Amino acid sequence: MLFSELGLSEQLLRAVAEQGYQTPTPIQAQAIPVILQGRDVLAGAQTGTGKTAGFTLPLLHILQQQPIPQKPRPVRVLVLTPTRELAMQVYESVRTYGKHLPLFAEAIFGGVSINPQIQKIRRGTDIVVATPGRLLDLIQQQHLDLSHVEHFVLDEADRMLDMGFIRDIRKIIALLPEKRQNLLFSATYAPEIGALAEQLLNDPVEIAVAKRNAAADTVSQLVYGIQREYKRELLAYLIGDGHWQQVLVFVRTKHGADRLCKQLIKDGIRCAALHGDKSQGARVRALDEFKNGAITALIATDIAARGLDIDQLPHVVNFDLPQVAEDYVHRIGRTGRAGAEGQAISLVDPEEAHLLAAIEKLLKRQIPRVADTGYPRVSLEPGNGKPPAKPIAPRPKPQQTGRRAQPSGGKSDPGKRTPPRKPRRGNVNAAKPR
């Protein structure tokens, strides 16, 4: 099938061709005709399969067919995303494919000044791509009206729930017109997604182009079993020995990202850290430098697991395994995109063995191990798949110090000490000097 067979307008087809695309991906081929029919959609697809264009193209086509509304233009399409990075990715997709159309779009997210966003919204816009928090701020300040929304997209719904946005989502849904088209996209499925879909969608068409919670076949996966204190050294060796030019490294904490970045810089590796404490300007600058090759390694927390769209990213490294197994799929989905090959490496210490077991249970297969890492061998057998129980230290026995007990409520004189009593001869219970 070709894009020209999907019923899209000539302006959209021209924009698609300018990006070098002729044939749609499976998710695009299935979703576009259904969305053009006005049906609600529940779509599941791996990251990197082109699902963003799968809903932006048909929604742009629908808006193009409608009369241009009077100024200021009301918001007719609302796309809700969990992170700033994903909001920018969707916004750029709308701008790229709608470049030949007389339509306007705005991206709304936190971490930056709200005033420029207020000014843009006042001028009127057809499409808003937003994160929940900043969107609700604008609504509560009466700068944004959702009463004219005709199409509502919930992108990366599973990540929304993981980040605790369910209450915000329900508040936003309550402000939308009852009659509208709803599109729910998710890379992984969980029971909570099914419950949300039942509440949101009306007789939806379900589209699934790959096995649920599965990694792309184009991504080769390896596990290095290694003690934690050797992880940084092994990572630096892999980057240098393999002449890697671009690698995305995931860590668990913001502090860990900053610390690892400083260590790699000392090893002579150009890198930058990306996490929630960074300003929006610093995050954009780090991504730009990573994409244009100015830095080799981008050290990121899971905030970057969604929304990063990097062409031909060859390597992803899990320096720390994620606490939630589904996040592993999202992390390694940053490589092997659009049919390209990629490599995902996980550095796993014995304390993370239970996390590895959960990931392999989700994938329904064992990830190959590297037998000889060059470091002392470790066991990654988790036993029952749970974190190892911490040993309970025995309570120390009270030792006789020779101090007289102070009466309740009394104060001791720090300058006056009570000499220890001399043990009586033959008294076996007396404290012995050590």
Automatic annotation (TrEMBL):
CDD domains: DEADc, SF2_C_DEAD. GO terms for biological process: response to temperature stimulus; ribosome assembly. Residues 374-434 are annotated as: Disordered. Its EC number is 3.6.4.13. InterPro entries: DEAD/DEAH_box_helicase_dom, DEAD/DEAH_RhlB, DEAD_box_RNA_helicase, Helicase_ATP-bd, Helicase_C-like, P-loop_NTPase, RNA-helicase_DEAD-box_CS, RNA_helicase_DEAD_Q_motif. It is an enzyme of class 3 (hydrolase). Signal peptide: none annotated. Belongs to the DEAD box helicase family. This is DEAD-box ATP-dependent RNA helicase RhpA. It comes from Methylomonas koyamae.
